[in-house]
Specification:
By secondary structure, the protein is α+β, with helices and mostly antiparallel strands. It is 17% helix and 41% strand. The longest helix has 12 residues.
Length: 381
């Protein structure tokens, strides 16, 4: 096999192919990138039996062929090559990579042992890439990072009524956002898929500027897959098995008690006051007609408090919130002002979840449908 390719194009393609590979794998062959040179250029692929990535790029191919090479090593090399065309050739089990005055010799991996990549169906539904990327970044932060309960380490995608909604939870908070869905050639008007949050977050970052993303959900050979396709790039992922908890019912229909404040002011105040807290400790937020007061009782050596402007509707309210969980929600609001609504429970001594939504101005609610529900800590008396 022998070809010549643009350095930047090649580096970006290899980087894409290895992004979703696990840092460690029990089968070294799964850490490889498969390079196939043909009449239409190069196809670079990776697959670890759970996630696959594939991209096609233009190249001047002199001799067709296929080779498997260590993915992360090739990505490191490609990203540091000088600004010159990359020449790539194979001799028996050796791979020769040269660019300008730099040259590398790598060992190939046994390509015949590499698994067959999943097939991507032609029938795809469509979402606007920027909207989908924004939705993923807003929701994925609420997914659990604890592998003990795999079902909540994913983001639930639900297609219905010309929308695809994204839902995630880690039991302490729930995030929801919907974007427009065009069934396109798929004819898919109703479906659900539980996608690993890490995979979906990488897809959101990679495809965010692609115009449109094609999405397909398939069930072949007892393997439930979801595929994302844009700009000559394809990512497939196995779906997480299990029933996602029915967290939508936790969201209140109407809340009469809420406060509106400047998002940036609340973020900065929370960061400052939480400096004295010990790990996992919560901040006390007191909402009154005079504004919002944040208080942190860290230890005997350090306490902190700060007050900011807030417009309160309803009665005075005190809640205790983990600062990082609150900051995650505030960072996803994407608006100058934020509304924090206070729900009730049947137990007057137990506060209900707070609902965080965007606010266009101090008086007008935001136009998006992003919602972030956060369970407060019990107040220390």
């Amino acid at each position: 096999m022998r070809f010549e390719v643009n350095r930047d194009v090649f580096s970006e393609a290899v980087s894409f192919a290895v992004k979703l590979l696990p840092q460690r794998t029990t089968l070294p062959i799964l850490s490889g990138v498969l390079i196939e040179a043909g009449p239409d250029g190069l196809v670079l692929s990776s697959f670890d039996y759970e996630v696959s990535s594939r991209t096609t790029i233009a190249a001047d191919v002199n001799d067709e062929g296929r080779v498997l090479v260590s993915g992360r090593l090739l990505a490191d090399i490609a990203s540091r090559l000088p600004n010159a065309p990359v020449r790539f050739s194979t001799e028996e089990s050796r791979i020769l990579v040269s660019c300008g005055s730099a040259s590398f010799t790598l060992l190939s991996m046994p390509v015949e042992e590499y698994p067959t990549l999943p097939q991507v169906p032609e029938n795809l539904g469509l979402v606007k890439a920027q909207d989908f990327s924004d939705a993923v970044s807003q929701v994925a932060v609420a997914a659990s990072r604890d592998d003990v309960t795999p079902v909540i380490t994913g983001v639930q995608l639900e297609v219905a009524d010309n929308n695809v909604s994204l839902v995630a939870t880690d039991r302490y908070r729930v995030a929801v956002r919907a974007v427009e869905w065009d069934s396109g050639t798929s004819g898919l008007d109703a479906a659900s898929a539980l996608v690993p949050a890490r995979t979906l977050a990488e897809i959101g970052r990679t495809f965010g500027h692609s115009g449109e993303i094609g999405v397909a959900i398939t069930n072949t050979d007892e393997r439930e897959l979801i595929a994302f396709k844009a700009d000559n790039k394809v990512v497939t992922s196995l779906l997480i098995k299990g029933n996602f908890p029915p967290v939508r019912r936790l969201f209140p229909e109407n809340v009469d008690n809420y406060a509106v404040m400047n998002t940036a002011e609340l973020v900065e105040a929370t960061r400052r006051v939480s400096l004295v807290l010990e790990r996992e400790a919560a901040l006390r937020y007191t909402f009154t007609s005079d504004g919002l007061t944040l208080e942190a009782i860290g230890s005997e050596q350090a306490q902190a408090s700060e007050s900011i402007d807030a417009i309160l509707t309803g009665g005075d309210t005190v809640v205790s919130l983990k600062p990082q969980f609150l900051l995650d929600g505030l960072g996803a609001v994407h608006s100058e002002f934020v509304r924090i609504s206070f729900t009730k429970t049947e137990n007057p001594n137990k506060p209900g979840p707070v609902l965080i939504t965007s606010q266009t101005s101090r008086e007008q609610a935001g136009s998006d449908d992003y919602r972030y529900l956060l369970q407060p800590n019990l107040l220390l008396r």
